[in-house]
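Note to self: the last two entries modelled the partners one at a time, which told us nothing about the interface. This time every component goes in together.
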Amino acid sequence: MNISIIGLGLIGGSIARDLKSQIYVQVSGVDSNDNHCQMALDLGVVDQIISLEEAMDSSDVIIIAVPVDALQQLLPTILNQINDHQVLIDVGSTKKLICDAVRGHDKRGRFIAAHPLAGTEFSGPGAALKGLFVEKKNIVCESDLVQSDAMEIAMKIFDSLGMQTIFMDPSEHDKHLAYVSHLSHVSSFMLGMTVLDIERDEKQIFNLAGTGFASTVRLAKSNPKTWSAIFEKNNVHLSAALDQYILWLQKFKKAMDEGDRTAMETYMTSANDIKRVLNK
Amino acid sequence: MNISIIGLGLIGGSIARDLKSQIYVQVSGVDSNDNHCQMALDLGVVDQIISLEEAMDSSDVIIIAVPVDALQQLLPTILNQINDHQVLIDVGSTKKLICDAVRGHDKRGRFIAAHPLAGTEFSGPGAALKGLFVEKKNIVCESDLVQSDAMEIAMKIFDSLGMQTIFMDPSEHDKHLAYVSHLSHVSSFMLGMTVLDIERDEKQIFNLAGTGFASTVRLAKSNPKTWSAIFEKNNVHLSAALDQYILWLQKFKKAMDEGDRTAMETYMTSANDIKRVLNK
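The predicted structure of the combined assembly is written out below.
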């Protein structure tokens, strides 16, 4: 099976690494960044680098793993050129606008809108990890619009990466992800920003940062361009999530300013419940 | 050397575990919670459980590792009873009020105000870890008020736990910690709160929470009573830190609401700098 991966960053590169290790799979890479192409070859992330045109001609499956803004431009173009046997998969972090953009397309049945919930704070082909998707969730939206043979091939690929696929409405996906992923990123970016802004003496941050701070601020190391595209595409849900988050922070600050330990503890005890929810 | 540890939670228990493994050190535990005492014995965290009075009589060194509100009450009482050869160390997370409370005490020279920057989101003797302090920073405040023989013994203990001790003014300590530790905890608690509040369907949180969310929300599992005491003692600095954090979140939300990707990326690129600061 010939699989082409467009976009050799953290996600595309990690998919490539895992698929490349399978017998009967040839993985070709496509990337507009020449340095990324060379790096992906040097690191053995892909078998070969080809052009987008070559990928359209030779691939059984095309996986698009570019930032969500580039995706929205690229997806209809690729779908226009795809034949009736090829399968197209996207792995972007927002799904509503993507699904809307291709809903009426006459090749819609060859396209799977997916979102593997995996990643790290690093980016580029050098960040690609083998096994990144093992035991991770993968969300597929509007699977009822996909032809059964295309869905079957896509599921084989998802399963072979070790993912557990669940199905969801694209609006629901974007709303949930605003809270459970995108908000975490904003909270972490702005925590980093606040500390850097106040602590002009970097040596003190380095000296005093414990493992708690490191964990909470980890996502602030993420790629700004990747995330600004995601935030832009999901701005309505994320804006509501941020409003709620700011409201809770203000409530907590009020309780603290008033010396109301009971209220602080009530909030924190409720928040503790995340332990039960995440571990169940 | 007889060392007594008052308070057998995460920090006290972890100190006990490491000291107990050293030859020539006998570690006794004191805790007002009978369950904690039994657990500490069963888990081998301490050699024996004794009363506070017995600890005062028999110890060369007394380490107080109780929550910071209990500490402020207990510290002067213990200092009143200490003799001229005993050494008293506290390991609480705020330092200004503690140092103020005992500054003029005639036994001030026997007391070391310390704060080892280590911990996890778990609590109680069952959370005590061997090696928790290895390569961690330890802050000592107002060391110039400590008699040299007491300081020497305390430094031997800190060194034997693997910590790197640095010295700092107590107000500076509290201000830095507000940003680099306490703010992280509030941001994480309220992130957990926001997601639990909105996502009434717990199954979706469980399904969709990636490693990014898990990392950012980890501190929301921390002990509410421990942290409400810390927040109360450090409320002035933490309130200022929260104001700054909320301000940055609002600025970010404004940029996103206005579709200003350049501003979003500028903020995130600045926040990325935390990578360089933390790794240097």
